[in-house]
Amino acid sequence: MKRAAPALFLKPLAACAALATLVLAAPQAMAQEKTLRIAMTAADIPRTLGQPDQGFEGNRFTGIPIYDSLTQWDLSKADAPSVLIPGLAASWAVDAKDKTKWVFKLRPGVKFHDGSAFNADAVVWNVQKVLDKDAVQFDPSQVGVTASRMPTLKSARKIDDTTVELTTSEPDAFLPINLTNLFMASPAHWQKKFDAAAGATPADKAKAAWTAFAADPSGSGPFKVTRFVARERLELAANKSYWDAKRVPKIDKVVLLPMPEANARTAALLGGQVDWIEAPAPDAMAQITQRGFKIYSNAQPHVWPWQLSFAEGSPWLDKRVRQAANLCIDRGGMKQLLGGMMAEPKGTVPPGHPWFGKPTFDIRYDVKAAQALMTQAGYSAAKPIKVKVQISASGSGQMQPLPMNEFAQQSLKQCYFDVQFDVIEWNTLFTNWRKGAKDPSANGANAVNISFAAMDPFFAMVRFVSTKTVPPVSNNWGYYGNAEVDKLVADARTSFDDKARDAALAKLHTHIVDDAPFVWIAHDVGPRAMSAKVKNVVQPKSWFIDIATMTME
């Protein structure tokens, strides 16, 4: 097969430089303070009101820096997987008699950016903002990106100022991990926005209040918002009174800039308009390093797949077709295309991981085996199978989606696949992901290309295979599932002992790999390029990275 070449990236860097310069023109005063300028892959600033959109790029840049959650990820190590650590909750435990109830002891003395206190009332308020439709602060726009990530959380109850009880709809050992996605916004600051808002009804006033809050947010994180210009820039200033002394920022200011095109980001870095870019253009890697910039990468729990539809009439209902597609992707060629910046998957998690298990299906590049399976299923070069994949042009964790998908399309052609694409904007694709393959938003697609995190059991597996997580509950876009899988999920979810849970998850992963509800194409290594002026950079084995501990010369 003729491999796709880096010519897919041939849009000249110089053609993007003038635009980047115009977009990034900054006040002269910026040079007088320690300012870090970051070009994101997002086409717009991720939402700032407390629950970000734009996938995990939103969590990375407008979630973790501005806000805190009860639990959080340890982003301080590059040589070990990120693990769950206390955040605004100092400790937590499940009730020994009722496994649907958890008690969280809160960190005392924490203040929001507006000076109001973080306490149990604030936790209850933030749970209600996404779960209680009768709460005045309930915001439907925040539900989709939150509730689908913690689908069993049912309610919160204050015990005292520093203690809160959370209740789930069923026993769920994954809850503390899920709570990394619930960011705590200031109820007092929101109330001021609500009191000043116009509106005929409380719901109208609440909607206006959230709009005002997004423009002037208040979290408890290491950075505060100082300027917000939609689709142009978000400026953050250091929160010098942050509660965690180890994460009080030494960088005075952070400027976040949406720049979805890889060559534009690369031109901006090389031209000195930014200090940090996400996902640099692969064919510019050598030039970037030769010019003295640093490229950081690390293995991370990241899956770049096609998620397949199991709705009636889908071409993926035959397991032979699903396995053939997994055998027909030339991942080595794709890795070359990406300048080495990917890992070749053997499943959702890698061999050696506690959850890997013992799958009998080996994901590899084997065209003859793939062709044999396709022949058995009734397909040939003269009679190819038609598949349609909904994809994006850029976006959070999407690596280089257009050239990667074009490469996969070319690779699969030799195994009798006729692949078509429906290319849409990333945030729209992410929204469609929650609506499912049966929704008109799928536009006839029978697969979707959205990368996802595999750092916890729910994110890695459960939300894609449980019959309880079909749309609109969570991300089982393809309506995959059966009684056997549900039993494996239940075994894992109700195992509160780590070793027993790992064993149950290994059985679940084994089943998933063998049944192939995905075409596993790549694992990302999260390449980002930075100026040598940016110091104390830790690239963790995570989708996330901690800006608060960085310094600048």
UniProtKB/TrEMBL annotation:
<keyword id="KW-0732">Signal</keyword>
<protein>
    <submittedName>
        <fullName>ABC transporter substrate-binding protein</fullName>
    </submittedName>
</protein>
<dbReference type="GO" id="GO:0030288">
    <property type="term" value="C:outer membrane-bounded periplasmic space"/>
</dbReference>
<dbReference type="GO" id="GO:0015833">
    <property type="term" value="P:peptide transport"/>
</dbReference>
<dbReference type="InterPro" id="IPR000914">
    <property type="entry name" value="SBP_5_dom"/>
</dbReference>
<feature type="domain" description="Solute-binding protein family 5">
    <location>
        <begin position="84"/>
        <end position="447"/>
    </location>
</feature>
<dbReference type="Pfam" id="PF00496">
    <property type="entry name" value="SBP_bac_5"/>
</dbReference>
<dbReference type="InterPro" id="IPR030678">
    <property type="entry name" value="Peptide/Ni-bd"/>
</dbReference>
<feature type="signal peptide">
    <location>
        <begin position="1"/>
        <end position="31"/>
    </location>
</feature>
<dbReference type="GO" id="GO:1904680">
    <property type="term" value="F:peptide transmembrane transporter activity"/>
</dbReference>
<dbReference type="GO" id="GO:0043190">
    <property type="term" value="C:ATP-binding cassette (ABC) transporter complex"/>
</dbReference>
<dbReference type="InterPro" id="IPR039424">
    <property type="entry name" value="SBP_5"/>
</dbReference>
